[in-house]
Write a structure and sequence with these properties.
Elements lengths: L1 H33 L2 H11 L4 H25 L7 H11 L1 H4 L6 H5 L1 H5 L4 H18 L8 H11 L2 H15 L10 H32 L2 H14 L4 H19 L5 H24 L1 H9 L6 H27 L4 H20 L1
Length: 352
């Protein structure tokens, strides 16, 4: 959060808007690599902690899908009005799909054994390490001739040490050794298919507004809006941490046909309370908070950020309820939810 605040101040509204537009495109395309595989691997691994074949298959499927995505993009991009510079920056950002914990794709899969064993402090510390590396590297932006290119490079490269160390700790703590296997790969793709539609539609919901805004208004407006969206991103830590803790318990209880009503009620009430308090506090001080963090050039961000903070009440609830459906092997409902969400969002983007 601190690193991005510094970057926003260094780059300014227009350049940050350019970066956000490309990152939004990469974020949407990255869902092809995601394919909804991780929740299925998490669920199966929670049932059998020694099933490293399906864990490796999940990783390898994503590596294969990544190669297909990058090759496909570079074949198509020259014919859809991408400039040579945009293609270069996009390819650099594509590497974050593999290396970055921010993308919640490959690094999220690598965290599965830590989640099941309740040792999430390891991947979390590595994510913090990534961000510390990024923080140090962005301090050199003012002396760079091309600050946008430099930032895109360090935004991607800062994740490589944490990626390498993730494999090291998987070996050290669980004795895991990487193997190239696609055992049960087709079964995994079949199980993940409803979630693939879900993650694609969800990412359309999260990212397409930036693409549409850039098309209709330009980089400046994207910069103003994206700064507000960036302020809400750290909040995903809260439902993420709670779901990661509760999910293995839910899977176990559902497998043994035990009642989960108490856990569900407690978690939902907690998420409602936390999100409401955060949104209320931010709304009353939004102008002051935005000015202090980003500077006066981003003062227009306060209004959109306030709306996005109130959206977190519903997003927090959905984050947990969708995980409950996955734990109960009803992920097809997630696809229906995401379809309604994305359609309504796109409709209002064009109307407004």
């Amino acid at each position: 959060m601190i690193a991005i605040v510094i970057v926003v101040r260094f780059l300014g509204v227009d350049n940050y808007g350019r970066f956000s537009s490309l990152l939004a495109i990469v974020g949407i395309l990255a869902r092809i690599v995601d394919f909804g595989i991780e929740p299925i691997v998490f669920r199966e691994f929670a049932k059998d902690k020694d099933n490293y074949h399906i864990f490796s298959a999940g990783l390898n499927l994503r590596f294969v899908l990544y190669i297909i995505l990058v090759a496909g993009f570079n074949l198509v991009a020259p014919f859809i009005a991408f400039t040579a510079r945009e293609i270069l920056l996009t390819n650099i950002l594509f590497t974050t799909i593999i290396f970055s914990a921010k993308m919640v794709i490959v690094r999220e899969s690598m965290a599965t054994p830590f989640k099941v064993s309740m040792k999430m402090h390891y991947p979390m510390l590595l994510a913090i390490f990534d961000n510390l590396v990024l923080f140090v590297l962005i301090l050199f932006i003012p002396i760079m001739k091309d600050p946008v290119l430099y930032f895109v490079i360090v935004y991607a490269a800062s994740n490589i040490p944490g990626f390498v160390l993730s494999f090291y700790y998987l070996w050290k703590k669980f004795g895991y050794k990487y193997e190239f296997t696609l055992e049960r790969g087709m079964w995994l793709l079949k199980e993940s298919l409803p979630l693939f539609g879900f993650v694609v539609l969800t990412n359309i919901f999260l990212q397409l507004d930036v693409v549409i805004l850039d098309s209709f208004k330009g980089h400046y407006d994207v910069g103003i809006y994206s700064a507000g969206a960036r302020l809400t991103m750290p909040l995903s830590i809260i439902p993420g941490a709670i779901v990661t803790t509760v999910f293995p318990i839910l899977v176990k209880r559902l497998k043994e046909n035990e009642n989960t009503g108490f856990i569900n009620n407690m978690v939902i009430k907690l998420l409602y309370f936390i999100s409401f308090v955060i949104a209320a506090v931010f709304t009353f001080e939004s102008s002051s908070i935005v000015t202090i963090i980003f500077g006066t050039q981003f003062s227009a961000t306060a209004y959109s950020a306030s709306i996005l903070y109130w959206c977190q009440i519903f997003i927090f609830f959905a984050f947990y309820s969708l995980s409950v459906l996955i734990a109960d092997n009803r992920q097809h409902y997630n696809f229906i939810y995401a379809g309604i969400q994305a359609a309504v969002n796109v409709l209002f983007c064009f109307i407004l």
